[in-house]
Structure formats: C-alpha cells, structure tokens
Design brief:
seven-stranded antiparallel β-sheet; globular; alpha+beta
Length: 207
C-alpha cells in the first residue's frame, strides 16, 4: 500500500485549511495575570527540546502546585529534582536553547503552552524560593518566553484523560517487570519490585 506524504506547507494548508482567526490571534509574548495564576496552580509540565541535529526529547517535570517560579513577565524558572541523571533535555539545551513547554492543571482540559529560549542555572537567589521539604534544587531551567498561549481542550477531551471511568484496566505488567524484560539487569524481579515501589520511590523524591 502506497503512502501519500505531505511535503510542503501548501499541501498541508490545502488539506487542513487556513488557521482559524481566533487561534492565530491568541499568541502573546509576556505573561498575563491569568498565566501567572495557571502556573501557580499547575503541578506538572512537559518540556520539549532537541539537540543540534534535531533529535528530540520530551521530559516531564512535576512538583507541588506552583513549582514554576516566575522571575518576571518574560522569564520563568523550573527547578530540577533528583532523577536518573540522564539529563537528556539539559544536554540538548546546552547546544540548542529552543524549548517548548505545556503546563497541565488536573481536571482542566485546556493547557498552557509556552515556547522560548532556555538555559541552565546552577545558582541564583531565587533557588531559596524553590525549596521543597527542605531540599534546595542544584540547578534550574530558566526559560525566556517568546510565545505563550492557552491551548484548546479538544485533545484532552478526546482522550478522556481526567475521567477515571474511562481509564480501564492496566494493559501492561508492572514497571519492574518491564525493566526485567527489556533491560539487562542482575536484580531479581522481587528486588526490582521493591526498588520501584511507591514506598521506595517516595523516599527518593527530593533527597
């Protein structure tokens, strides 16, 4: 079966039509008070980056609501917390500062989208404002906003993301079982289950 690939924006527009006027007009370059309120209530975001060759990464960031620190009307900072140390997105930023972010509010189908230029900061006075459970971040991702807007609800409505009655049974084995199956590891499944348990992970969220 042959594929019909779109290879130009003209082809794309012929298929999709022109952008809706309201969608074209919603872009801003500075934080509005409503943006600040959204960030103050958001506990989760996704950060998209790419390296110098265009290889992409999307990393989740989560903390208590309001974890995104607003420096001024065009600049925000996101604290880093202990993780697996791959630092895929951070390594990308070192060679390509362009980043895209989406901020979620649990239960809300709209999202707040932001694009800008990112840099890594290892020390700044505002780190004192990002302490959680006594832990001060060792670095933060600072983003200078170039574009910001609220994204419509259709994708989350179609996915029924926030509707528990639509979630259904978990189709996959536990994360520990996936690690045992897909990675080379000397640990037994029992050891992996203990390592990836909620009780174990909760002790490593900030320390």
């Amino acid at each position: 079966m042959s594929w019909a690939e779109i290879q130009s924006e003209d082809e794309l527009r012929e298929l999709l039509g022109e952008v809706m006027p309201r969608a074209a007009a919603k872009e801003r370059v500075r934080l509005h008070e409503r943006d600040r309120q959204w960030l103050a209530a958001s506990p989760f975001c996704l950060i998209a980056t790419s390296d110098a060759d265009g290889n992409c990464d999307v990393s989740p960031k989560g903390d208590p609501a309001g974890f995104t620190y607003v420096i001024d009307d065009t600049t925000i900072a996101i604290p880093d917390r202990p993780g697996n140390r791959r630092a895929d997105g951070f390594r990308n930023v070192l060679v390509n500062p362009h980043a895209g972010l989406i901020f979620f509010l649990p239960g809300r189908n709209e999202t707040l989208r932001m694009n800008g230029r990112a840099r890594l900061i290892r020390e700044a006075p505002f780190f004192d404002e990002m302490i959680v459970k006594g832990h001060r971040p060792r670095l933060a991702l600072v983003v200078e906003i170039e574009q910001i807007f609220f994204h419509c609800a259709k994708a989350l409505m179609r996915s029924a993301l926030w509707k528990p009655d639509q979630w259904g049974p978990d189709p996959l084995p536990s994360h520990a079982a996936l690690v045992k199956e897909l990675q080379v590891t000397d640990e037994s499944l029992t050891e992996l289950e203990a390592y990836y348990s909620d009780a174990s992970y909760s002790k490593k969220l900030y320390g």
